[in-house]
C-alpha cells in the first residue's frame, strides 16, 4: 500500500 | 536520491533564492504574483507537516525548513515590507478557483484517506497549478523582468527534472507514485509556452514580452 512507502521526496 | 532529483531540488532552491534576492535587493516585488507565493507557502505548509515527526535525512529536513522559511519570508516581504510595490491591479487571479477544486480532488483521489495523506495530496495538486496566478499576471502585463523569467525557468525546470527522476526510479527501484507523476506532468506542461519564450527570447538577451 502506498503509504508504507516513506515520502522521501521534497 | 539520484542526480535528477538532486538537480531538481537545487533548481527549486535556486528559484526560491532568486526571487527572494530580487525582492530584497531591488526592494520591489513588481511583476511578481503575491497570490502564487501565498499558494506556494500553502503547498509547503501542507506537505511538510511531517517535518518533525518523520525524519528522513539532514538534507531532507534542512531543505524543507529552507523552503518553508523562504516562502513565508517572500510572502512577508510582498505583503508587508514592500507592500507599496506590490502590483495588485495585475495580480487578480482568483485563488479560490484553484484551492477549492484542488481541495475537493484531494478528498476524492488519494492513496490513503488519512488527514496527513489528504493534506499531502492537496499540496501535490495545488503545486501543479500554483504558478497560474503568476503566468496570468505576466499575460496581463505582457512582459516580465529578466530576473523574474530566470526565476520561472528554474522553477519550471525543477518539476521537469523530477519527472526524469520518477522515470529513473521506476526503472531502477520499480517505485512510482501516480498522483505525484500526473500532477508533475500537468505542472510542467503549464510552463511549456513560457519555456519556449524563455529559450527563444531571454537566452538571446531580449526582454520577455508576450504577444499582446
TrEMBL record, chain B:
It is found in: Endoplasmic reticulum membrane. Pfam families: ER_lumen_recept (PF00810). It comes from the Eukaryota. The keyword Coiled coil does not apply. The chain crosses the membrane at residues 62-80, 92-111, 117-138, 174-199. It is a multi-pass membrane protein. Keywords: Endoplasmic reticulum, ER-Golgi transport, Membrane, Protein transport, Receptor, Transmembrane, Transmembrane helix, Transport. InterPro entries: ER_ret_rcpt (IPR000133). Belongs to the ERD2 family. This is ER lumen protein-retaining receptor. The gene is LOC100377465.
Amino acid at each position: 500500500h502506498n503509504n508504507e512507502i516513506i515520502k522521501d521526496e521534497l | 536520491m539520484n542526480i535528477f532529483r538532486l538537480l531538481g531540488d537545487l533548481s527549486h532552491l535556486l528559484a526560491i533564492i532568486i526571487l527572494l534576492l530580487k525582492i530584497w535587493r531591488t526592494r520591489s516585488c513588481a511583476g511578481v504574483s503575491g497570490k502564487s507565493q501565498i499558494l506556494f507557502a500553502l503547498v509547503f505548509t501542507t506537505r511538510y507537516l511531517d517535518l518533525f515527526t518523520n525524519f528522513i535525512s539532514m538534507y531532507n529536513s534542512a531543505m524543507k525548513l529552507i523552503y518553508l522559511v523562504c516562502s513565508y519570508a517572500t510572502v512577508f516581504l510582498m505583503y508587508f515590507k514592500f507592500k507599496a510595490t506590490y502590483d495588485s491591479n495585475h495580480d487578480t487571479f482568483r485563488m479560490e478557483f484553484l484551492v477549492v477544486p484542488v481541495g475537493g480532488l484531494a478528498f476524492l483521489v488519494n492513496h490513503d484517506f488519512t488527514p496527513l495523506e489528504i493534506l499531502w495530496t492537496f499540496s501535490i495538486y495545488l503545486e501543479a497549478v500554483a504558478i497560474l496566478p503568476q503566468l496570468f499576471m505576466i499575460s496581463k502585463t505582457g512582459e516580465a523582468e529578466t530576473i523574474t523569467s530566470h526565476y520561472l525557468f528554474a522553477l519550471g525546470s525543477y518539476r521537469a527534472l523530477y519527472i526524469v527522476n520518477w522515470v529513473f526510479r521506476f526503472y531502477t527501484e520499480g517505485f512510482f507514485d501516480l498522483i505525484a507523476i500526473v500532477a508533475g506532468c500537468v505542472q510542467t506542461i503549464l510552463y511549456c509556452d513560457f519555456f519556449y519564450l524563455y529559450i527563444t527570447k531571454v537566452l538571446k538577451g531580449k526582454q520577455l514580452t508576450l504577444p499582446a
